[in-house]
Specification:
Layout: E1 6-16, E2 19-27, E3 30-32, E4 35-37, H1 44-56, E5 70-71, E6 80-87, E7 108-113, H2 114-120, H3 123-136
Parallel strand pairs: 1-6
Antiparallel strand pairs: 1-2, 1-4, 2-3, 2-7, 5-6
């Protein structure tokens, strides 16, 4: 697979009194999980962890469900997105600037239930929501 076309991200899961919540980021009209393009020589999980830190400032991650992942089919000029799942207790989000532009890549963030994540997501994102909720057991 062409390394430059693999986008790596993490479905963040946080246990709350209302149940499991997940973090969604909005860029223009599109809601998605934090993710970004893997750099040369980077392992997919390393890329996902780096992207989450850059985009959300969340660094406290527990891969309680192991290193299994879900990969989407090609989208947006042939990119493929690979998502892992990690639990975090951090709820404060700071959207970092893009290394390319110096501006945040996203316009908004929200901790939402997996039902809300499904409603916000595109068909591509909905596949990930369904996969993650089966594994987490929401």
């Amino acid at each position: 697979m062409n390394e430059s076309k693999l986008s790596c991200g993490i479905v963040l899961a946080r246990q709350t009194d209302e149940g499991w919540m997940t973090l969604m980021l909005r860029a223009f009209h599109h809601w998605d999980f934090p993710k970004g393009i893997r750099e040369l020589g980077e392992e997919p999980m390393e890329a996902a962890i780096r992207e989450v830190a850059e985009e959300t400032s969340i660094t406290e991650l527990s891969f309680n469900w192991g290193d299994r992942y879900f990969e989407t089919g090609p989208y947006s000029r042939g990119k493929i997105a690979r998502y892992f799942i990690a639990e975090t207790s951090q709820n404060q989000v700071v959207m970092g600037p893009s290394p390319e532009t110096g501006e945040p890549e996203h316009h908004e963030w929200r901790w939402v239930s997996f039902d809300e994540a499904y409603d916000l997501g595109s068909p591509r994102v909905r596949q990930i929501v369904q996969w993650a909720r089966q594994i987490i057991g929401t």
